[in-house]
Amino acid sequence: MSIVFFGTTDTGWHCMHAMIQAGLPVRGLVTGSQEFEISYAKDKVQNLRHRSFKNFQEQHGIPVLTFTRRFDDEIVHTLTSWQPQLFVVIGWYHIIPERVRALAPLGTVGVHWSLLPKYRGGSPLVWAIINGERETGASLFYLEGKVDTGDLIAQERVSLGADEEVGELIAKLNTVSGKMVAEHIPKLLHGTAARWEQEEAQATYFPPRAPEDGKIDWTWPARRIYDFIRAQTLPYPCAFGLQRGRKIKIVKATLQPLAGVHVRVRAGDGAWLGLEKILLESEQQVKWARDYF
Fold first, then answer.
1. Is the peptide bond before 117 cis (omega within 30 degrees of 0)?
2. Is this model's pTM higher than 0.85 or not?
3. Which of 190, 207, 223, 259 has its CA 20 to 30 A from that of 80?
4. What are phi and psi of 192, to 5 degrees?
5. Which residue spans within the chain are E strands per DSSP?
6. Is CATH 3.10.25.10 what the domain over 211-291 is classified as, yes or no?
7. CA distance 89 to 182
8. CATH topology for the 3-202 domain
9. Which candidate, 23, 21, 20, 26, places its Cα nearest to that of 2?
10. Greatest CA separation found in the chain?
């Protein structure tokens, strides 16, 4: 049996590590650059959660192939030489065409951070928090020609706290995803894994998000603004407002502002929101909002 792993993010790294710890037969690894081209963006985009996978080659002798833009003949030749039985794709941003998926007779599987068929598409955690969800999860499923529509193998539910920020949720789901692949990939190799169809009638789809989508509308209710902020805070580009034409990224806020601690802003419903931490445009150092405004 032979597995080929595709990944570029910290989540992919955690899952790859879990698979190695579980003794799974990973024959090769395909990763990508931090800056890359993608169909829905005019310019190159930055993978804000990019992580190097070179340690798996250095410590475990697993060959690493760097993907650039397309599955050309050279890449397909290398994949074929690894004689894959199964492709595992986690933290990957490129469509794997059918002719490539056909190289792995046991299929191509991946992890999507939602309880499929809910929240198919891009940025599922961000959208879940924006929409005020109190539960999300991870789904292990088969990759097919359409986005996030393949049969399910396993799902794990996780709670989503009313004040939980996206970075906390990422850390939680990294752990869940690693355990999921360590438990269910061996079953796939031995033909004992569960498999069931998604319920199309329950499907929802959300588009990928870009940094410019983070502009705050201060006429919204305070709760909506608060959810909007915690959904897009670090490690993502952050929700933002404009002051005299300068972009102010809001890193942390609260619905219970304290005098002398927070900068109070009245929302559209008349409730107060407290700004706690900010990032100024083109700066890397997080500041206390009270020290700026």
1. yes
2. yes
3. 190
4. -115, 5
5. 3-6, 26-32, 35-36, 45-46, 64-67, 86-89, 108-112, 120-121, 135-142, 152-159, 205-206, 239-243, 246-254, 263-266, 272-280, 287-288
6. yes
7. 14
8. Rossmann fold (3.40.50)
9. 26
10. 65
The pLDDT assigned to 42 comes to 65
Cα 24 to Cα 27, 176, 184: the distances in Å are 9, 18, 11
- Domain boundaries defined on the chain: 3-202, 211-291
**pLDDT of 162-218, one tens digit each?**
999 999 999 999 999 999 999 999 999 999 999 999 999 999 999 999 899 999 999
Q: Which residue has the tokens 């796939």?
A: 188
Residue that has been written with the tokens 């900010």 in this structure: 278
- Confirm whether 3-202 and 211-291 share one CATH topology: no
242, 248 Cβ separation under 8 angstroms:
yes
Q: Counting Cβ atoms within 10 Å, is residue 15 exposed (0-12), middle (13-18) or buried (19+)?
A: buried
pLDDT digits (tens, 9 = 90+) for 115-159: 999 999 999 999 999 999 999 999 999 999 899 999 999 999 999
